[in-house]
Amino acid sequence: MFRTRMLRSFIILVVALALTTTAFALADSNTVTTSKAGDGSAAVSGYAVTGVTYNLNSSDPSLIDSVAFDLDAAATNVAAGIADSSANEKYSDACTASGTHWTCTFSGANIPTVLEAVSLRVIAAE
């Protein structure tokens, strides 16, 4: 009886050791390419938007073709949206810059009308 117990314990130990070795071997075979990661914090401040000008369509002045404005600092990505009274926004298709002066154009189904324009949203990022 003592011998049977010892044999059973030995077999369980060998199986557990085999499983542990296999798990270690599988984990050891994973390779990961070199990459960068980081963590940190910094203050995020907004842009001041000034000199807003709405440019109307020359053949239909009830439509807004583009909006031009100045930002108080340089930005690399900018978009503009004009919302109606139900907060439905129509966003610009493209924005171009000359220094900190930006012009965002609307086209197709994204052309807002003068009557529906209630607010302007400028989204800018550096």
Determine the mean pLDDT. 85
Low-confidence stretches: none
Largest sheet: 4 strands, antiparallel
Q: Give the helices and strands as they follow along the chain.
A: HEEEEEEE
Topology:
Blueprint: H1 2-28, E1 49-56, E2 64-71, E3 77-83, E4 89-91, E5 94-98, E6 101-105, E7 119-125
Antiparallel strand pairs: 1-2, 2-6, 3-4, 3-7, 5-6
Report on the architecture of this protein.
This protein has 126 residues and is an alpha+beta fold. The chain folds into 2 domains: 1-31; 49-125. It is 21% helix and 34% strand. It is built from 1 helix and 7 strands; from the N terminus they run H-E-E-E-E-E-E-E. The chain has one helix at 2-28, and strands at residues 49-56, 64-71, 77-83, 89-91, 94-98, 101-105, 119-125. Strands 1-2-6-5 form a 4-stranded antiparallel beta sheet, with no helix packed on it. A 3-stranded antiparallel beta sheet has the order 4-3-7, with no helix packed on it. The longest helix has 27 residues, at 2-28. It is elongated.
